[in-house]
Design goal:
The complex is a heterodimer of chains A (303) and B (277). With 303 residues, chain A is mostly helical. Chain A folds into 2 domains: 47 residues, no CATH class; 237 residues, Orthogonal Bundle (MetI-like fold). Chain A has 13 helices and 2 strands. In chain A, a hairpin with a 7-residue loop joins strand 1 and strand 2. In chain A, helix 3 packs antiparallel against helix 10 and helix 12 runs antiparallel to helix 13. Chain B contains 14 helices and no strands. Chain B starts with a helix and ends with a helix. Classes of the chains: A mainly alpha (303), B mainly alpha (277). Chains A and B meet through helix 1, helix 4, helix 5, helix 6 and helix 7 of A and helix 1, helix 3, helix 4, helix 5 and helix 9 of B.
Chain lengths: 303, 277
């Protein structure tokens, strides 16, 4: 290509501009990929949400009927409520425990890395495996009830009870997630400049005062981040519920993420499933914007 | 003196507590391992039996006979490697394009990439399924691999990293006569090794664990990944707990081995994936 052009004529600017075009070439494959597998699906999700579509015959436009139906769909409302319970019920314990662990493991002590691995290990086990193992642990005759039975003389049926099953799944989520957020909190704690602690020491602050007046306020960006990410992840919950209970008993553990799947691929109501998924998108979008806003006011506060 | 003993005692008891809770944390994993070697009737024995007695290795051989677990395994490894390789290559390429070149629309395109991070999978799941079906990719490796092959997060991460590579290095290569693709291949890629290792582990793990997408695009037994295969295994052999635990252990061992050797990279992977929000 360049052989066809007399290279002498090229101004520096021209070479520079031509070089910049390589950037476009480099990002092009990724952009084409996203156009096909992210942006187009996103737009069609909105379109499908306004249709009746069963995969066999082409989608039929029905406007907002799906949304009207959704608001009267008892199963959707239960799943929505369950999702909120699951998300908020998981978030608080995850936040507290992972912060607590981070405060322990941010200090240097002998054998720290070895002990920390114990807390981190559940993170790397797959959700499917975790669900399978805990299904056995929660079994009416399983090890959990064996211990509870000998200590307290009780034997709850964890996964078949409408009130206990949601709790049992929250328990797993907390167990598997704390190691992950612990690492993030540790990184946040390490970012707090040592000078603050030195100054507090000079002023004679107690460890408790230091925690409340230095650590916690300076950790706020990380805290908010963990809070919102946990919520967003919980709102997309699927694997535990699908593998352990299939949403049962009688929808007690059904969540939006699972209900979208069921509606689409078990009842073949693609249009309606899209309606629910778009609703999920709006909720998650709201949370994301909330986070962005909180972080921004936070940054403004520091400046 | 007394105070010293008191402090020592406090230290000892907090150590004990920390280790005790830590062991509780990995109890489910240990329980899985031990149950996978138990006689079927010993799994629910009271008091809880942690060390299997007698040990029954047949659980494994019999579990493998009940379903093509080996095939699931290979599928997961193949799909995982393919996705990871594609993702790392194109993320670095695009990250390079976004960080070291200024072309018309680069900002808008980068914002578009970032916006993909806000799309929950469940929202695009249905249209993706329709696309994949139209391409004829149901029950094909292409269907498992391609739609999952690139993440906006990877592009973002690599852009951030490549920004920190000094421009002088690129200019030096240009003076030596390197072409722009040459610079990418010989200068940028080798320098990106640290973030690529972490991103690679993270991508591989994510796909190893992914259930929802394989569940949608795969109906044929021989195309199942390990996550999907295990789920179906449980559906069919739901009460043969000794087999279930053996199969679950088999699916976990490679990840555990990887973790033991690459612990630091795993933790870095967590940190970078934590930035995702």
């Amino acid at each position: 290509m360049s052989a066809a052009l007399p290279s002498q004529k090229h101004s520096r600017w021209n070479i520079y501009t031509r070089r910049q075009l390589w950037g476009l070439v480099f990002v092009l494959p990724v952009m084409i990929f996203f156009a096909i597998f992210a942006f187009y699906p996103m737009i069609s999700a909105f379109y499908y949400s306004l249709t009746d579509y069963n995969l066999i015959s082409p989608p039929v436009f029905v406007g907002l009927k799906g949304y009207e139906r959704m608001l009267q769909d008892e199963r959707f409302l239960i799943a929505l409520k369950n999702t909120f319970v699951y998300a908020f019920g998981s978030t608080l314990p995850i936040w507290l425990i992972s912060l607590g662990l981070a405060l322990v493991f941010v200090r240097d002590f002998r054998g720290r890395n070895l002990v920390r691995v114990l807390y981190f290990a559940p993170v790397i086990v797959s959700g499917v495996v975790v669900s399978m193992v805990w299904r056995v642990i929660y079994h009416p005759y399983g090890p959990l009830n064996a211990v509870l039975g000998s200590l307290l003389g009780i034997a709850p049926t964890w996964l078949t009870s409408r009130s206990l099953a949601p709790l049992a799944i929250i328990g797993i989520n907390v167990w598997q997630s704390v190691g992950f957020y612990m690492i993030i909190f540790i990184a946040g704690l390490q970012e707090i400049p040592q000078e603050f602690y030195d100054a507090a020491k000079v002023d004679g602050a107690s460890p408790r005062q230091t925690f409340w007046h230095i650590t916690l306020p300076l950790l706020k960006p990380t805290s908010l981040f963990v809070l919102v990410i946990t919520l967003i992840n919980c709102f997309q919950a699927f694997t535990y519920q699908y593998v352990m209970t299939k949403g049962g008993p009688s929808d007690a553990t059904n969540v939006i993420g699972l209900y979208v799947y069921q509606s689409a691929f078990q009842y073949l109501r693609m249009g309606y499933a899209a309606t629910i998924s778009v609703t999920l998108f709006v909720i998650i979008m709201g949370l994301t914007l909330l986070q962005l806003r909180l972080v921004r006011t936070e940054e403004a506060g520091y400046a | 003196m007394l105070e010293k003993i008191g402090r020592g005692f406090l230290k000892l008891s907090s150590y004990t507590l920390l280790i005790f809770c830590g062991l509780l944390m990995i109890f489910p994993v240990l329980w899985m391992l031990s149950s996978s070697l138990k006689m079927p009737d010993k799994i629910f024995s009271v008091p809880v039996q942690l060390i299997p007695n007698p040990v029954r290795f047949e659980n494994y051989t019999e579990a493998i006979e009940l379903a093509p677990l080996g095939r699931y395994f290979l599928n997961s490894i193949f799909v995982g490697f393919a996705i990871t390789a594609i993702s790392l290559f194109f993320s670095t390429l695009a990250g390079f394009g976004f960080s070291k070149y200024r072309f018309w629309g680069s900002k808008a395109l980068f914002i578009a990439v970032l916006s993909t991070l806000m799309i929950p999978f469940q929202v695009i799941m249905i249209p993706l399924f329709v696309i994949v079906r139209n391409f004829g990719w149901l029950n094909e490796y292409a269907g498992l691999i391609i739609p999952a092959a690139i993440s906006g997060f990877g592009v973002f991460l690599m852009r951030q990293f490549i920004l920190s590579i000094p421009d002088e290095l690129l200019d030096a290569a240009r003076i030596d006569g390197a072409s722009e693709p040459g610079i990418f291949w010989y200068v940028i890629l080798p320098l990106c090794k640290p973030p690529l290792t972490a991103l690679g582990i993270f991508t591989f793990l994510d796909n190893w664990n992914n259930l929802l997408w394989p569940l949608i695009v795969v109906t044929k037994v021989e195309m199942r990944t390990i996550a999907l295969g295990l789920t179906e295994y449980q559906t069919v052999h739901g009460t043969s707990y000794h087999y279930l635990m053996a199969a679950a252990t088999l699916a976990t061992i490679p990840i555990l081995i990887l973790f033991v050797f690459l612990q630091r990279q795993f933790i870095r992977g967590v940190l970078i994936s934590g930035m995702k929000g």
